[in-house]
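Because discrete structure vocabularies remain unfamiliar, we turn briefly to a single example record, giving the amino acid sequence and backbone structure tokens:
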Amino acid sequence: MEKFISCCGLDCATCDARIATISNDDALRKATAEKWAVKYKAPDFTAEMINCLGCRQDGVKIGHCYECEIRNCAIEKGFVTCGSCPELDTCSKVAGILSFVPDARENLRQMSLQS
């Protein structure tokens, strides 16, 4: 399966939020919100927020994907992903993702090599 890398390095192709959106699966939205609320210590996640086609794609971005400070920072700086940013290794915005999802850093490095 081809990777579909977000601004922060997550692989959208395997993201439950994107999968739930594409398949319009409300049960998966609910399960994803509950899982992420615990995993990311973000009790404000709701099923209604789980609606995203990927932060670098046109189309729906409601809730966390639209408001994401990492995505907004990359856009403001003119980067496709954080992998192009010289502050990647010291950035507090993306640090949480990189600590929770170790593959994200490698995804960003691969994306920066392709640019």
Notes: The first helix runs from residue 16 to 23. The chain is about 50% helix and 5% strand.
